[in-house]
């Protein structure tokens, strides 16, 4: 049994975006009165039966996300790619180091780790327990097609096309997570058959240059036929009520703090 917590399900700017005529935010098509339209940057926690937790991505909202979901410890981190909305919370890792008394393993491709070492060189220096006056990560290089063990979970990594770079998708048993993808290689699609639950990025209603949109995701769903599909990485075009009215059975929108239990 896996427990998956959706820490955030918004796009790179979140919902609402900064701005708006009154400075209170730009909501686009999203109704501000619907709390599930308020989205922080996309990230999840995967917790196994033994209680160990894998954090997938660490965006700029990480601190508030972990506090909101009462998560004070993680055992490993997987970074899907090096875009800012998926890595800019790495400095928040320091209290989590203190919680486990050790550096936290971070799994990422060689390209992503190189980007992290440029932006956050200090997190890869020699750890300083027990105080940890700087965050501490242990880099572990991985690649698409590789099967790894992270936080006690058997994780299969697969390739995704984000147009401007490749991203990592992951599968654990009959659960899979795909964020920041606009095209899926055939081999990756074949590896997504027989899913119970698929969380997949869907930025807006109409086609986008680097993100999947509603019709594209529904094409994938028609081919893969997971029991349940949950949309994430959504922009301010994706209103909660609109999605409830227009998405087919078995396809639904995520919301921040959503909790899933998957056999």
List keywords for this structure.
263 residues; alpha/beta; Metallo-beta-lactamase, Chain A; seven-stranded mixed sheet; 14 strands; 19% helix; globular; RibonucZ/Hydroxyglut_hydro
Please tell me about this protein's structure:
This protein has a 7-stranded mixed β-sheet with strand order 6-5-4-3-2-1-14. A 7-stranded mixed β-sheet has the order 7-8-9-10-11-12-13. The chain has 7 helices and 14 strands. The protein has helices spanning 62-68, 84-87, 94-100, 110-119, 186-190, 214-224, 240-246, and strands spanning 2-8, 43-47, 53-56, 76-78, 104-108, 137-141, 147-150, 153-161, 166-172, 175-178, 197-201, 228-232, 251-253, 259-262. The model has no long low-confidence stretch (mean pLDDT 97). A hairpin with a 5-residue loop joins strand 2 (43-47) and strand 3. The N and C termini lie close together (4 Å). InterPro entries: Metallo-B-lactamas (IPR001279), RibonucZ/Hydroxyglut_hydro (IPR036866). This is MBL fold metallo-hydrolase. Residues 40-213 form the Metallo-beta-lactamase domain.
